[in-house]
Amino acid sequence: MFDAAEVERIRNDFPLLGHYQEQEAGGRRLAYLDSGATSQKPLSVLEAEQEFYERRNAAVHRGAHQLAVEATEAFEDARAAVAGFVGAGEREIVWAKNATEALNLVAYGFVNASAGLGGPEAERFRIGPGANLVITEMEHHANLVPWQQVAAHTGAELRVIPVTDAGRLDLERAEALVDSATAVLAFTHASNVLGTVNPARRLVDLARAHDAVTVLDACQSVPHFGVDLPALGVDFAAFSGHKMLGPTGIGVLYGRAELLDALPPFLTGGSMITTVDYQQASFMPAPQRFEAGTQPVAQAVGLAAAARYLAETGMDRIAAWEEHLAGRMLAGLQEIPGVRVIGPEEIGQPGDRLATVAFDVEGVHAHDVGQFLDERGIAVRVGHHCAQPLHRRFGVTATTRASAYLHTTEEEIDVLLGTVAEVRGFFLR
Question: What is any Pfam family matched here (predicted)?
Fold first, then answer.
């Protein structure tokens, strides 16, 4: 785990945090507690992206000139770096514009296979009436709405694993809902609202027992603790660059190589084909079969720099520091009258909860809470966090969410707690 001096050194790697303090707030220190939505970028990431544009900018996989060769090498080196960060092979990493697109690539692969596209190798993805798709009650809309669409296109039933009052998955119900007719089990590794870290290996084993495909939303896990996707056994997974210190405009789809090669593509066009005539086209093997059109090359280079920064800092140490902050935040919020934590109120065992805490302040709308905190230099998220059904499950329309990261200090958590304690007195006086 970090000490205070090391966290301060890490914080100094993030130019925006210092710029805000010097230029935007007249010396007031920013407590940035919205990393669950988007993370700030260390200087090494900004420099990597700039260096690509200054020295290597060209179209990849297309040109015979030296600059194109260097751009392609940088692009594929980035794929290798990001693959290594999650324990994957290079052919198992597909670039997308974000995790939402990555999840849709999988979902609409099932739709296309069910419509008869993709040939014999795609038959494993064909589903129809009588089949079911299983998700959880804590899913982000990005891992919910695509499966609604698959159900609508194919006639499959959509089932939902419920969440307990304590904010954890009801695993007994999961075992009842996943059965021999289950085609897909799609679940979040860690909830962006509750902070709950789900038992991925147990869920994968449940799906495998019924020959179901697993799709993991890893957006909130890959940035915060070490994740080895092949070791987890998942078939597909998605995560986004901008939540793990990387650029916006890039996401990652992981898939086991043999499954990616069999899945029909969803986005089609240039750079993903072998032959084309006016009646049909043949597609390249993965990952290129899913990478139609001009790719986010500079963003991939920046994401690779982010992965290297996280790896050099140490994912185990990052996780330990965030767990420390989570305990501090949870304990403090529970001492404030009128504040209700949505999700697990304590860390049950190491690694089962993120430093992402959503809470409701009795009698005060989350947007008012957020504005009150913002005026004091504390950046948090407010709203339903793209998880409306989950909020309805807990009887609220919106929450305030504070999410810490590796650069968050104990003092910033304490400032949050002290300011939240003032909210009801200000609005309800």
Answer: Aminotran_5
The full DSSP string for 78-130 is HHHHHHHHTT--GGGEEEESSHHHHHHHHHHHHHHHHTTTT-GGGGGG---TT
CATH annotation of 49-310: 3.40.640.10
CATH 3.40.640.10 range(s) for the chain read 49-310
Average pLDDT over all residues of the chain: 96
Question: Side chain identity at 307, as an amino acid letter?
Answer: A
- Does the annotation mark 386 as catalytic? yes
Please give the backbone phi and psi of residue 182, each rounded to the nearest 5 degrees, phi first.
Answer: -75, 125
pTM reported for the whole predicted model? 0.96
Report whether 384 contacts 397 (CB < 8 A).
yes
| Among the listed residues 17, 337, 139, 79, the one whose alpha carbon sits nearest the alpha carbon of residue 148 | 139
Domain 4-32+315-427 has CATH 3.90.1150.10: yes
CA 134 to chain centroid, in Å, comes to: 19
pLDDT of residue 243: 98
Place 26 in a pLDDT band, splitting at 50, 70 and 90.
low
Instruction: Please check whether residue 188 is in contact with residue 139, taking contact to mean a CB–CB distance below 8 angstroms.
Output: yes
Pinpoint the residues of the chain covered by CATH 3.90.1150.10. 4-32+315-427
Give the distance, in angstroms, between the CA of residue 371 and the centroid of all CA atoms in the same chain: 26
Query: Which of these is catalytic: 69, 284, 386, 396?
Result: 386
